[in-house]
Amino acid sequence: MNELKISKSELKLDSGEIANISYNETDDILEIVFNGNKPATGIELTDNILLRVDRKTGQAASLTILHFSILTERTEFGPRSYALDNLDELPEDLRELVLRIISTPPVNQFLKLSHFQESPTKRVSFTYVETYPSC
Question: Please, are residues 65 and 46 in contact by the beta-carbon 8 Å criterion?
Fold first, then answer.
């Protein structure tokens, strides 16, 4: 049986707040908890990225990234990007909240948001995982 390898640390965010970061090397999972662990709604941004949102405060509670080392690999053309297809299934108010959370601190230190204009009326959202110095 493989030995479970987990590293934990605190990271001072650009906002001055502290996030708790836990990386499970064995399973290649990175978890970032913002402002302590509190009840929140989990939203699958992709098959490998889970954002937990405190709907009362409109803030991110945590971010979990499965297959972290794969999602942060660079290609010859830049970072790997992932379509946020699961957002289409959310109610509009929750989708807008999630997009705001992804595009503002502290989440935007770890996920970057971009869009592809498929047609004049349809925009597809994408994200890529930013490697942070302590991750």
Answer: no
